[in-house]
């Protein structure tokens, strides 16, 4: 699309919205940025946008904002159901997401990853794998760097690896990555999307425009993900930790292998893999499959798999104090992700959990808490519901501690009750927005408090 002289309304003054506004202005569009928050409550400097001749409108969003507008671009946090967007659609105005814009601007292949859990680890690993194939690799999207910025930086010289969330896919229309991977789909973001079915439909937009010349990498072990093969026009490559597949990426005698077009490539053993835990075996298989289909050398893939040590905020060892190890798993913003963290350890866990409650079912999570957690420290607005669910699943009230809305108090309680060989694990199973700007902010505060412990 040619954005020159188009009138664009960007809704949402977040990282993606601000980036899209800048990019659109650079491409010759007339841009207005709107956010319902008061300017004092927006953490980014909007004066920079005004210096670029981008109009900034904060507070109540009147439908007059749409007058003469050609394109409405939504930040990921902005749902399609808001009145302004509904009015835009009634008027026949094109509505798109920042990743949709990035897809239109991209001159090099995009390799995209979505799923409920594991996206950031998989995308970070895939970025490193792609550097064995391309001199210039962008990594962006939901991982923290706007995708528009990365596709423009890469130009036509390499590729871009994209972490894509359901929020970003909700407003996508023609997004078309050459290779896409769906890691898993479990209940999450139901408050935003309204139902699990709609959430899954958003995820499936990542391959909606595929042809047989495109590849779709799917988790064979996840029934919801496996069934996507029935609706995709792509060439399918499954990955599995549990099954030995005829074709795809899987485990064979504890070794990661890829079988494709009659040839088998052995990569590394689970023990040699740089990231630990069963969920990370799945992430590694998915990333290796995408890289292989893109043309990466299996020998070079193996070297990266063995050297990659993981990402910040995902079961990240912070330090050891008096024989007790402290782990930051702030990225666990839902129960399924927190379950994977609990399964990584054999037990004797002091767990800090809670935060901005997503209101998903807690039964499976709390059953595992009852098995593996010695002490449970609860924070945030989910604390009372988590406490009730813990008790209902056999966890003893004497071992539940409440820290209100204070991470400092939670860390202090954890230090007071933890004794070696126990570990302290922050794995909230919740979003962060009742106490923090983001899960990254929450994780860094946790790490700072831990490092200050005597």
Give an overview of the whole structure.
By secondary structure, the protein is of the alpha/beta class. It has three domains: about 5-90, Rossmann fold; about 100-305, 3-Layer(aba) Sandwich (UDP-N-acetylmuramoyl-L-alanine:D-glutamate ligase), CATH 3.40.1190.10; about 315-450, Mur ligase, C-terminal domain (Protein-Tyrosine Phosphatase, Chain A, Alpha-Beta Complex), CATH 3.90.190.20. It has helices at about 15-25, 45-50, 85-90, 100-105, 120-130, 145-155, 165-170, 190-195, 195-205, 225, 280-295, 300-305, 335-345, 365-370, 385-390, 405-415, 440-450; strands at about 5-10, 30-35, 55-60, 70-75, 95, 110-115, 135-140, 160-165, 180, 215-220, 235-240, 250, 255-260, 265-270, 315-320, 325-330, 350-355, 375-380, 400, 425. The strands form three sheets. The protein has a nine-stranded mixed beta sheet, with helices on both faces. Strand 4, helix 3 (about 85-90) and strand 5 form a beta-alpha-beta unit. The longest helix is centred in the middle third of the chain and has 17 residues, at about 280-295. The chain is globular, with a radius of gyration of 23 Å.
